[in-house]
Amino acid sequence: MEYVTAAPHPRSEAAATARSGRRSLAVALLCGALGAAVALLATRQRWAEGTATVAGGAFPLTAKGSDVTGVPAALAIVGLAALVAVFAVRRAGRLLVSGLLALSGAGIVAAALAAAADGSALDEQAAKASGDTSATVDALTHTGWPYVAAAGGLLILVAGLLALRYGSLWPAMSGRYERGTARPRRGSRPADPERPEEIWKALDRGEDPTGA
């Protein structure tokens, strides 16, 4: 009677692990790069608008995301740099960089949502336009771009979580690009005693022409 074992083959396990690493790497790169691009794009759009009373009339005011808060754009750049740095470090360093990547995404989400209803930037513009430091913006409205920035931060957060979970399976920068690695020098060949010109060249280089 023959018995069939259910134990997986080591090669199949290794192949499955490699596929998981490749898939997670592709998804993390896509999410990180797309999230940073979305967050940066959203901060350049109009987040809030309103009016200020100037000389008895309504003066229109607008505020971009960068006017409201600079945190999402700064963290998007940090996250993009961390995504690239993941491949330049190993072990504990990769774990730390992956954590920084995830925190950058979480910070973008928190900052964008907190600024979604913020009108302080337009209040400052209203005070400047009216010449009254106590003036505030009227008819304040907000756009959906803060939530777009939050979505970009969420993508970066996903990339960071994937790096924390599967980063150990991802490739690292080749050792030939690391500092301190030098190509071994080939040993010099002893000079041919039947060729005087080679003996003189060896002496000029400070080498023993006999090769001893």
Automatic annotation (TrEMBL):
Region (Disordered): 179-212
Claim: Membrane is one of the keywords in the record: yes
Source organism, top-level taxon: Bacteria
Chain intervals with Basic and acidic residues compositional bias: 189-212
Keywords, sorted A to Z: Membrane, Transmembrane, Transmembrane helix
TM spans (from-to): 25-43, 70-89, 96-117, 144-164
Pfam families assigned: Trp_oprn_chp
Matching NCBIfam families: trp_oprn_chp
Protein name: TIGR02234 family membrane protein
Native organism: Streptomyces cinerochromogenes
The organism's taxonomic lineage, starting at the top: Bacteria, Bacillati, Actinomycetota, Actinomycetes, Kitasatosporales
